C-alpha cells in the first residue's frame, strides 16, 4: 500500500510536524520512503510518500494533530497543527498473462465471398482478470486474427492502467490540499512529539 502524509496548504509548523511524525514512525512501523517533499525551514516536509505492507498503519488513516506552541512564532496563539495520513492501494498490475486469455472463434459478419462465409476465421479474445474483450475479423487467417485480438487486449490494458493512474493522482492531489480539521485519530504533544 502507498501511504501519503500531507501538510495540506502547509504552514511552517505543520511541515515541522511531518518531520517529527516521520521520526516517530521510523522505529514503530516498517516502510520504504518513496518521496520526501522538503520545505523551509530545515527539518520540515510538505508531503511524504511511503510504501508499506504494515497493516498497523491503517489505524493512523485520517487527520492527525500536533499540539504544540509554534517553534517559529513564539507569540502565535495557535497550538493545534493538523496534518493527514491517507492510504492508497498500489496500482494494479495490468500485465496480460497470455495463458489466461480465452479465445473463441466465429464466422465473420462481413460480406466477402465463399471463404469468409464458411470458415470460422474471426477471433474473440477474453481476459477475465481485467474483464477485457477484443474481437478481430480483419484477416482471413484465424492465426492472424488471434494475434490482432491479443494485441488489442494489450492496448486496452494499457489504457486501463493510464486511466487508473490518472484518477489516483487526481484524488491524491485533491486530498493533499484538503485537510479536515478536528476529530483527530491521534494526538501528539509538545516539542518531543509524545503520543
Output the strand order for the largest sheet. 2-3-1-5-4-9
Instruction: Report the end-to-end length measured between terminal Cα atoms.
Output: 24 Å
Mean pLDDT, rounded to whole units? 86
Global morphology: rod-shaped
Instruction: Tell me which CATH architecture of the largest domain applies here.
Output: 2-Layer Sandwich
Question: What is the gyration radius calculated from CA atoms?
Answer: 26 Å
- CATH fold name of the largest domain: Alpha-Beta Plaits
Number of E-type strands? 9
Order of helices and strands: EHEEEEEHEEHE
Count of helical regions: 3
Strand content: 25-35%
Number of domains: 2
CATH class of the largest domain: Alpha Beta
Structural class: alpha+beta
Low-confidence stretches: none
Helix content: 25-40%
Largest sheet: 6 strands, mixed
Structure description:
This protein has helices at 12-26, 114-118, 142-177; strands spanning 2-6, 32-38, 45-51, 62-67, 80-88, 101-106, 122-127, 132-136, 186-189. It is of the alpha+beta class. The chain folds into two domains: 2-92 and 183-189, Alpha-Beta Plaits; 98-163, Double Stranded RNA Binding Domain (2-Layer Sandwich), CATH 3.30.160.20. It has a six-stranded mixed sheet. The radius of gyration is 26 Å and the shape is rod-shaped. The model has no long low-confidence stretch (mean pLDDT 86).
